[in-house]
Write a structure and sequence with these properties.
Elements lengths: L1 H17 L5 E9 L3 H10 L4 E6 L2 E12 L2 E9 L10 E7 L2 H7 L4 E4 L4 E6 L4 E5 L3 H4 L3
Parallel strand pairs: 1-4, 5-8
Antiparallel strand pairs: 1-5, 2-3, 3-4, 6-7, 7-8
Length: 143
């Protein structure tokens, strides 16, 4: 179920992602659960994989068998607990570009979110949330 969900979501994102001209590689997909039951189902489906971070908002998994996508190998999936703020979205996708700082400097009025170890530029519209991140999950978690 998760592999087909991700494939379908990436197809939906394709036009918005193609608007970003820089060379980009997929890093992580966040799946927004639609209910507590959905959250449990998604976590059960991923239970054979390693949880590398148990956050208050959900679990981050390192996949034993990465999913091949049109944007490269996907090794990380986060399952978020249900949150009414994301009812219109099923996923968000994190990408890495070759030169984050140069990319950031080209964006007019970027929406930047800062975290402890990295920052991201977020592009959000009616049907997609695309994040360009300054540090990959692989590097952040030293994997």
């Amino acid at each position: 179920m998760i592999t087909s969900l991700i494939e379908n979501e990436l197809k939906k994102y394709e036009k918005n992602i193609s608007d970003i001209k820089e060379n980009k590689t997929i890093d992580c997909v966040t799946i927004f659960s639609s209910s507590n039951e959905d959250y449990d189902i998604l976590n059960k489906e991923l239970s054979d994989n390693r949880i590398i971070d148990e956050m208050s908002s959900g679990n981050l998994y390192l996949l034993n068998n990465p999913i091949e996508t049109i944007y490269g190998e996907l090794s990380f999936i986060k399952v978020r607990k249900h949150d009414d703020n994301y009812n219109n979205y099923r996923t968000s996708v994190d990408f890495i570009v070759d030169d984050y700082e140069s990319f950031k400097n080209k964006i007019d009025n970027p929406v930047i979110k800062k975290y402890d170890t990295f920052e991201l530029i977020q592009f959000k519209n009616d049907d997609s949330i695309i994040n360009i991140i300054s540090l990959s999950a692989k590097d952040d978690y030293k994997i």
